[in-house]
Amino acid sequence: MSLRWSFACVEFALPTVKCMIMYITQNIFRPSLTTFSRSIMSANHGQKILVAVVGVGLVGSELIHQLLSIPPSASPFKLISLTSSKRTVFVDKISSIGPGVDWKSLLAASPASADLKQLTARLIQLIAERERVALVDNTSSEEVAGLYPLWLKQGINVVTPNKKAFSGDAELFAKILSASRESGARFLNEATVGAGLPVIAPLKELVATGDKVRPELHRLSRLDILS
């Protein structure tokens, strides 16, 4: 199954996965490129992004599948860490977790318990080695979202569908913005409403290209949504 067809298959149920991969590629790896395919074609001419995934449920598993479906010679990514609610695995940046690896068994067999502080320390070390690092948070955890300012301040790019950091405490959001500006690290977020409709990325693209979005009230699944 081709990558494009794989994206089409999950676009309705998991649009966040598509947006996250495209956002990582376009905005962190090569901001000047405007399409995913052009980034893939140019991947072997630039530095790989080292990716750490936190949360390996429905969205996380699909994201990992998509990342590993890209041929290593063309991929702009290296998957170096996986963290579930109980276990974590962290591999050497040279070897990484590649296609053909049974990542679920690898994670289940890991003797290391989930420890975000230790993960953070390892990622900071990679930043010190001048590597490009992206942490993808697929959880809905407030605790994980609370670490975004720390990660961003240390230069770790954050990509997430977790709504907690962007729809909750305004102080946390302000800290995220401040940390991103201070270090230059990027935070990229996407969320869905209704029947799995992605809204954040399309709205950002409309505004970025000069369009104006007017407030509209919609009713989805018996809920009034103001967009």
What does this structure look like?
The protein is α/β, with parallel strands linked by helices and 227 residues long. It folds into 2 domains: 3-190, 3-Layer(aba) Sandwich (Rossmann fold), CATH 3.40.50.720; 197-227, no CATH class. 43% of the residues lie in helices and 18% in strands. It is built from 11 helices and 10 strands. The strands form 3 sheets. Strands 3-2-1-4-5-6 form a 6-stranded mixed beta sheet, sandwiched between helices. A two-stranded antiparallel ribbon has the order 7-8. Strands 9-10 form a two-stranded antiparallel sheet. Helix 2 (15-29) packs across helix 4 (58-69). The radius of gyration is 17 Å and the shape is globular. The N and C termini lie far apart (36 Å).
Main sheet properties: 6 strands, mixed
| Outline | globular
- The ordered H/E elements are HHHEHEEHHEHHEHHEEEHEE
Q: If you consult CATH, what is the topology of the largest domain?
A: Rossmann fold
User: How many angstroms does the end-to-end distance come to?
Assistant: 36 Å
Radius of gyration: 17 Å
Poorly predicted parts: 1-15, 29-45, 223-227
Number of domains: 2
Average pLDDT reading: 79
Largest beta sheet: what is the strand line-up?
Answer: 3-2-1-4-5-6
Features:
globular; Rossmann fold; 18% strand; alpha/beta; two-stranded antiparallel ribbon; 2 domains; 11 helices; 227 residues; 6-stranded mixed sheet; single chain
Write the layout of secondary structure elements.
Elements: H1 3-10, H2 15-29, H3 36-42, E1 49-54, H4 58-69, E2 77-83, E3 88-90, H5 103-108, H6 116-128, E4 132-137, H7 142-145, H8 148-153, E5 157-160, H9 164-167, H10 170-183, E6 187-189, E7 192-193, E8 197-198, H11 200-208, E9 217-220, E10 223-226
Parallel strand pairs: 1-2, 1-4, 4-5, 5-6
Antiparallel strand pairs: 2-3, 7-8, 9-10
Helix pairs in contact: 2-4
